[in-house]
UniProtKB/TrEMBL annotation:
Name of this chain's protein: FAD-containing monooxygenase EthA
Cofactor section: FAD
Organism this protein belongs to: Microbulbifer agarilyticus
Keyword entries, A-Z: FAD, Flavoprotein, Monooxygenase, NADP, Oxidoreductase
PROSITE patterns recorded: PROKAR_LIPOPROTEIN (PS51257)
Family that this chain belongs to: Belongs to the FAD-binding monooxygenase family.
Gene3D superfamilies documented for this protein: FAD/NAD(P)-binding domain (3.50.50.60)
Length: 507
């Protein structure tokens, strides 16, 4: 089996992977790198999810790349527009031909003797070329994981009593059938998160009726579908300035909102519930949008121009807050005795978390227990050499932190080049071990279910996350690389691959 060697390998060709690759092209032009992508297309999340109405849950001005800002007026863009934006960015920065599609990795092992990563997996050819699967092996000096944090193969599906008795169609949004006909059908969407509040108004346009069945309420915030201020500014100043101003404004507003929610939770709660009452109108039941927890203990659900509330007011959708007793042949029996008839049940029950795309991470053949590892600046894993991961914010637009992480990695690679070093490793010399995970800012069910997988935060920086964009930006992009925690050493092997290895062109 031929081994392909690169200076740097990026796992994943989604938003984070393409963003990181673009940073390398801009800031580390001499680095020989490739991207390994399991799927056959660019886009990651935005290629996977194809359910009706799929869209961003963050505003696009802060969700877009810093080096190629979003230049549309939609506050929350649809999934296909985002996928196309990622694809166009890859083409503009000439990284498309560096992607190896269909590569499913199973193991990444750091070989201390060779001081390089060894990656094993298989390559699946595109469907139109026939189902051919062959083993593949790659090696690299530096490994960057841009795989996000959830399992692409399957979403979270709780087991409901009687669910296999249902005679209608049972669907999980992560695997949406593109030929699904729901016109004039009775639909029940189980869930109350971003996916559910997106699906309900989108399906209500054609369905006979859509019911959102939730165990407990979520904060739902109506936002303008289009940025009218930026539209007005474009008439008077250059577009680039207008979009740049919109990005800076929204980043600041979101940060203020998060800080206010943590400092004055009751006031923010009161303001948000007032917005719900106004949107639903007099006489409507607002208890379905009155959560038991404080704002930002879980992610807020933003809806453009209150489309969910409009569907409810029009009688095309409704919300039921109750636990499920069992699934019947014709719908859902609730614990209060009510029965919800359904032709289609959509189980928008959340994600199943998975780190590093599911590959086994090893050091000299020994499996790394990620739960017992700290993260350094949210980018490196304690005690794991020459590896970085790009992990976005959970309390703001994902891309803001992903951009900073990619910028920091570029600085780190340039430091290796400029100093003639071959290895870096983050070392916790002061015993900063803490017990909270890197996603502890959220109390969502999917985070709690994955606590046994997630790396830890430390008791202080750089092992503790700041979740503060202005502070993170200054530290990641300006602070010295050498800080006494990050250790460097020279490589003991040649830069070029051995005789049995080669740097191969894109597969």
């Amino acid at each position: 089996m031929r081994t392909q060697h690169f200076d740097t390998l990026i796992i994943g060709a989604g938003l984070s992977g393409i963003g990181t690759a673009c940073h390398l092209m801009r800031d580390c032009p001499d680095t020989d790198f490739a991207i390994l992508e399991r799927r056959q297309q660019i886009g990651g999340t935005w290629d996977l999810f194809r359910y009706p109405g799929v869209r961003s849950d963050s505003d696009m001005f802060s969700f877009g790349f810093s080096f190629r800002p979003w230049n549309g007026l939609k506050t929350m863009a649809d999934g296909e527009s985002i996928r196309r934006y990622i694809e166009d960015t890859a083409a503009e920065y000439r990284v498309t031909n560096k992607i190896h599609f269909g590569v499913n990795l199973s193991e990444a092992n750091w070989d201390s003797a060779q001081q390089r990563w060894q990656l094993l997996g298989e390559r699946r050819s595109p469907a139109e070329e026939g189902a051919v699967i062959e083993p593949v092996q790659f090696t690299c000096n530096v490994l960057i994981s841009c795989t996000g944090y959830y399992d692409y193969q399957a979403g979270y599906q709780p087991e409901f009593s009687g669910m296999h008795d249902f005679q209608g169609q049972w669907i999980h949004p992560q695997h949406w059938p593109q030929d699904l006909d729901y016109e004039n059908k009775r639909v029940v969407v189980i869930g109350s998160g971003a996916t559910a509040v997106t699906l309900v108004p989108a399906m209500a346009e054609q369905a006979a009726h859509v019911t959102m069945l939730q165990r407990s309420p979520t904060y739902v915030l109506s936002v303008p579908a289009e940025d009218k201020l930026t539209h007005w500014l474009k008439q008077w100043i250059p577009e680039q300035w207008a979009y740049g101003m919109a990005r800076r404004r929204n980043i600041t507003l979101h940060r203020w909102m998060f800080k206010a929610a943590k400092r004055w939770p009751q006031l923010v709660r009161k303001l948000m519930l007032r917005g719900v009452r106004k949107a639903l109108g007099e006489g409507q039941n607002t208890t379905h949008f009155t959560p038991r927890y404080a704002p930002w203990d879980q992610r807020l659900c933003a809806i453009p121009d209150g489309d969910l509330f409009e569907a409810i007011n029009a009688g095309k959708a409704s919300v039921v807050t109750e636990e499920i007793d069992c699934i019947t042949e014709s719908g859902i029996r609730l614990k209060n005795g009510d029965h919800l008839p359904a032709d289609i049940i959509v189980s928008a029950t959340g994600l199943k978390l998975q780190l590093l795309g599911g590959l086994a991470l090893k050091l000299d053949g020994e499996t790394v227990d990620t739960r017992n590892r700290l993260t350094y600046k949210g980018v490196l894993m304690e005690g794991v050499p020459n590896m970085a991961w790009v992990f976005g914010y959970t309390n703001a637009a994902w891309t803001l932190k992903a951009d900073l992480a990619a910028g920091y990695i570029s600085r780190l690679l340039n430091h290796l080049r400029d100093t003639g070093q071959g290895q870096f490793i983050a070392v916790d010399k002061e015993n900063c071990v803490g017990d909270s995970s890197v996603m502890s800012a959220l109390q969502s069910g999917y985070v709690e279910r994955a606590d046994h997988l997630l790396p830890r935060q430390g008791t202080r920086y750089p092992w503790k996350l700041l979740n503060d964009y202005p502070k993170d930006r200054k530290i990641m992009l300006e602070a010295p690389i050498m800080d006494g925690i990050l250790k460097f050493s020279a490589s003991c092997v040649a830069e070029k691959p051995s005789a049995e290895e080669e740097t191969a062109p894109t597969g």
